[in-house]
Structure formats: structure tokens, C-alpha cells
Design a protein that fits this description.
The protein has nine helices and nine strands.
Length: 241
């Protein structure tokens, strides 16, 4: 399909977007959940029970992401946003690796937080700090003195930027889901919400989720997105059929 002038796109990306960059997914046979149960490292209860384990888990993920590079899928989405502008292309991600930003995205709504930040464990409104390496166990909030925790949205917590995500879904003409399992809410309901408002819904996933999509491209993101974006922008590419 070709985009019509003025059409607005919402792109939701999950772990499949970054797999080709060497970022482990959670649900693959060799994924992160094979090493740790989510109850051990990805809930507020886990943090209260064993903050050292949780810090080490996210330190390892952060150091892995530090050396990772954006792949052609990230680059294609960033090129699309630069070509059409952030008002027409809203990039929403469940990923915490920062690779869309590293690829040069104008704006990314990171629903699940970021590996590159820490925040007060007691009050999310207190200042968030950037981090590039291993988190110091003794780091404390500058406002209240509480320990700093990874700036990650854990299971049972409210995703970030919900209002802006909802607004984008309400006005989008095309909804594109890339590399996400469709199992985690609220993101699992985005395609259905967009379709109910008349948007065309498209999924790029080598293992289709079976969700509410008008079109499914059963290929890895790094293969499908460069061609899809080239088509949308009316560009000729020798690499695409």
C-alpha cells in the first residue's frame, strides 16, 4: 500500500525489532526468561525482596545494549519518521534498549521505561537520572534519600506515556505492529482499538500473533521494514520485489 498525503501512522515495536541487533528477547528458547523467572527480576516485589539481583540483571542488560547497534529495521522506522515528521509518525516501543533513539529517532514513546535511567523507588515524580554503566548500589534520591531503582516499568506497574499513546491511537490512519507477541496489555489491545477507529492494521512478525490485523507480513523486521518503508515513501529499491 502507498500512504495518502496527511495519513498518520502509529508504530508499536517489541522485542523482535531489536533481535537482529543482538538484544535477547524474553520468550525465545534462549531468551531472558530462560535465565530468570519474571517474578525474580521484573516486579516491584522482586526489587523489595532482592534489589541486588534486580540491579545485576539490568546492569547486564544495559552493558549488552551498550555495544548493540541499530539494525535496518530501526533505521527504516527512523527514516520514515524523519521523512514524514513526528506529528505523522508516532513511534511507540515496548523495548527498553534505546536503539531507536541511537538510530536517530526524533521522538520515541518508551512505554516500559529505559535501561538508561534510574529513579527514586519511593516517588516516581522525583528526578530521573541517566546512567550509562553499572548502577551503584548506594545511589540515593537527591530529594528524599530513598534508593534509586532502574527506570523500568515492571509487571503490575502503569506504562509510561499512556495519555500520549491513547491520543495517537485515536487519530491514526495506519497502525503497524512490529515484532511483538501481542500478549502484554495494554499494548496487546492497540491493534483492536486502532481498527475500531477505522485504521488499517498491519503486523510484521515472523511468528504472527493472530491479532486484529488487516495485513500480516510474516518476515523478520530487519527484512520487511526497509521494503515497507521504501514502498510507503514511493522509493524504488533493487532489494525489494
Amino acid at each position: 500500500m502507498r500512504l495518502i498525503d496527511g495519513q498518520r501512522l502509529v508504530v508499536l515495536s517489541g522485542a523482535g525489532l531489536s533481535k537482529a541487533s543482538g538484544i535477547p528477547t524474553f520468550r525465545d528458547a534462549d531468551g531472558l526468561w530462560e535465565q530468570h523467572r519474571l517474578e525474580e527480576v521484573a516486579t516491584p516485589q522482586a526489587w523489595r525482596r532482592d534489589p541486588d539481583l534486580v540491579r545485576r540483571f539490568y546492569d547486564e542488560r544495559r552493558m549488552n545494549a551498550l555495544s548493540a547497534l541499530p539494525n535496518p529495521a530501526h533505521e527504516a522506522l527512523v527514516r520514515l519518521q524523519h521523512a514524514l515528521g513526528r506529528r505523522r509518525v508516532t513511534l511507540i516501543t515496548q523495548n527498553v534498549d534505546g536503539l531507536l533513539e541511537k538510530a536517530g529517532a526524533i521522538e520515541v514513546l518508551a512505554m516500559h521505561g529505559s535501561l538508561w535511567g534510574v529513579r527514586c523507588e519511593r516517588d516516581e515524580a522525583h528526578p530521573h537520572l541517566q546512567i550509562a554503566g553499572v548502577q551503584s548500589p548506594g545511589a540515593r534520591c537527591s530529594v528524599c534519600g530513598a534508593p534509586l531503582r532502574p527506570d523500568i516499568v515492571w509487571f503490575g506497574e502503569q506504562p509510561q506515556a499512556v495519555d500520549r499513546v491513547t491520543e495517537a491511537l485515536e487519530r491514526c490512519d495506519v497502525f503497524l505492529s512490529v515484532g511483538t507477541s501481542g500478549l502484554v496489555y495494554p499494548a496487546a489491545g492497540f491493534a483492536l482499538a486502532a481498527r475500531a477507529r477505522g485504521a488499517v492494521t498491519i503486523e510484521v512478525n515472523p511468528e504472527p500473533s493472530g491479532g486484529a490485523f488487516d495485513e500480516v507480513i510474516a518476515k523478520p523486521a530487519e527484512e520487511a521494514l526497509p521494503c515497507l518503508v521504501a514502498d510507503w515513501l514511493g522509493e524504488a529499491s533493487a532489494l525489494c520485489p
